[in-house]
Write a structure and sequence with these properties.
Number of helices: 11
Largest sheet: 5 strands, mixed
Strand content: 15-25%
Radius of gyration: 18 Å
Strand order of the largest sheet: 9-8-10-7-11
Length: 264
C-alpha cells in the first residue's frame, strides 16, 4: 500500500471517529487545561530520542519544551512513531506535532502547518565501499526506509526497481542498516551519521541528497487562534536565535538562512 493511500485512510478513519471524540482543543482549551500534548517520535536521532538517563532528548524535544514554557503550560510528550504522528493528532491524542514533520501536499490535506521553523533533507546512505551516486543506482538493490516518511514516497516513485523494505520507525531502520540487514538506507543525514557511529566498521556515509523539505509545527485544521500563536512563537524564536541554538546543539549546523529570513 502506498503512502498516499495510507494517509487517505488515516484521514477517513479520523474523520469518522471524530463523532465519538470530545471537542478538539484550541488555544483557550490548552491554556485552561494547563498542559499541551505534543507528538514527538523518540526514535529519531537527533530530533527525538531517549538519553542514557531515560529522559526524552533531541531538537524536537527541546523545541517542544521551549514552546510549552513560552505558552505557560506543562508539556506532555506523546511518543509517536513516524507513521503514528498524524493519526495521533487527528484522533485527539495530541494537540500539536513537533517531530521532524516536513510540509508536503498530501499532509496539507490532513493537517494545517505553521510557518517553517527548520529544514530536513532526505538522503541515501550506504557504506563507503558501495558505489552509489544517484537514484538510478538503487535499481535491484534493497533500500530501508521509514514507513510513511518522505523517503518512502521518493524511493517508491523514483526508483521503482528498488526493493523497498519499510520499518515503522527510525530506530528500526538504524538497527537494520547497522546490523547488515540492508546496506542502503534512505533517511536523514543525522540518522545516517548515527548509523556510522553505531557500526563504525561499515563507514556509513551520505551518498546523495534526494530532496530538501521545510519543517513545521502541525495541528488539526481550523484552529485559527492556535495557528496564530504558534506562528508568532516560530517568528519570535527564529528572530531571537533560540531555535537556531537548539538546532546547532543537536545537528551541528545552523537552520538554513532562507528559513530564518522567511519568518521575518
Amino acid at each position: 500500500m502506498n503512502t498516499s493511500r495510507i494517509l487517505r485512510r488515516t484521514v477517513l478513519a479520523a474523520t469518522l471517529g471524530a463523532l465519538c471524540l470530545p471537542a478538539m482543543a484550541d488555544l483557550a482549551d490548552i491554556k485552561a487545561a494547563g498542559k499541551i500534548r505534543i507528538a514527538i517520535d523518540l526514535s529519531a536521532p537527533f530530533y527525538g530520542y531517549v538519553d542514557d538517563k531515560v529522559n526524552p532528548a533531541g531538537s524536537d524535544v527541546e523545541a517542544a519544551q521551549l514552546l510549552a514554557k513560552d505558552l505557560g503550560v506543562q508539556l506532555e510528550i506523546v511518543n509517536s512513531t513516524n507513521s503514528a504522528r498524524i493519526p495521533n493528532l487527528l484522533s485527539n491524542k495530541a494537540d500539536l506535532i513537533i517531530s521532524s514533520l516536513s510540509i508536503t501536499p498530501e499532509r496539507q490535506k490532513a493537517v494545517d502547518f505553521s510557518i517553517p521553523y527548520g529544514a530536513i533533507q532526505a538522503a541515501v546512505g550506504a557504506p563507503k565501499s558501495l558505489k552509489i551516486t544517484g537514484i538510478d543506482d538503487l535499481a535491484g538493490k534493497t533500500v530501508a526506509v521509514t514507513r510513511g516518511g518522505p523517503q518512502d514516497k521518493i524511493v517508491t516513485e523514483r526508483a521503482p526497481q528498488a526493493k523497498v523494505v519499510r520499518f515503522d520507525d527510525e530506530a528500526a531502520s538504524i538497527t537494520a542498516a547497522a546490523s547488515g540487514q540492508t546496506d542502503i538506507v534512505a533517511i536523514t543525514p543525522p540518522i545516517i551519521a548515527a548509523i556510522a557511529k553505531r557500526a563504525p566498521a561499515k563507514e556509513f556515509e551520505v551518498k546523495f541528497v534526494l530532496q530538501s523539505y521545510q519543517l513545521a509545527v502541525a495541528m488539526r485544521k481550523n484552529q485559527p487562534e492556535l495557528m496564530n500563536w504558534v506562528n508568532g512563537w516560530v517568528k519570535t524564536n527564529l528572530s531571537n536565535g533560540k531555535l537556531n541554538a537548539i538546532h546547532l546543539k543537536h545537528a551541528g549546523v545552523p537552520i538554513p538562512k532562507e528559513i530564518v529570513d522567511g519568518a521575518k
